[in-house]
Amino acid sequence: MAYITDGRLVENFTLAEMTNKQAKDTIKLVITPAVVRHAQMMQELRKWYNKSMTVNSWYRTKSFNASCGGNAKSPHLNGTATDIAFPNLTEQHIINFNAKWKAICEKWGVVGGISIYKWGLHFDSNSDVYGLTSFRVNDYR
């Protein structure tokens, strides 16, 4: 059995990175089995990438999500989405990350997705909240 001893659920992502620090709400992170699974999936992605990743957003409170214009069904609301900043994202990066995240989602048996933005990539592990039954890719650049 694993125990949280150093502020991490997984090796390369801290609870602080998962926390919605900008939220005015008292509770800024809720850890559920889905959050732990998503963290383990993100850890697999991080190990594959073999470089540090800057987390822009992970868990969001409902009020914070609304204030930043997030979708009312956003997977950030249950901690199963992570936005990673990639300032110099190339088309090859997108192809590689897309293929790897899709493989990770399939391995874990979840409907996941990736969204591409000018600032980086959004990875989620429950695109089924939108009624989807297969991996999705959205390009918002």
Q: Can you give a write-up of this model?
A:
The protein is an alpha+beta fold and 141 residues long. The chain has one domain (15-139): Muramoyl-pentapeptide Carboxypeptidase, domain 2 (2-Layer Sandwich), CATH 3.30.1380. It has helices at residues 15-18, 33-49, 62-67, 91-108; strands spanning 54-57, 81-85, 113-116, 120-124, 136-139. Strand 3 and strand 4 form a beta hairpin. Helix 2 packs across helix 4. The chain is globular. The protein starts with 14 loop residues before the first helix and ends with a strand. The mean pLDDT is 91.
By DSSP (H or I, 4+ residues per run), the number of helices equals 4
Cα-to-Cα separation, first versus last residue = 42 Å
Instruction: Report the count of strand segments.
Output: 5
Q: Can you tell me the CATH topology?
A: Muramoyl-pentapeptide Carboxypeptidase, domain 2
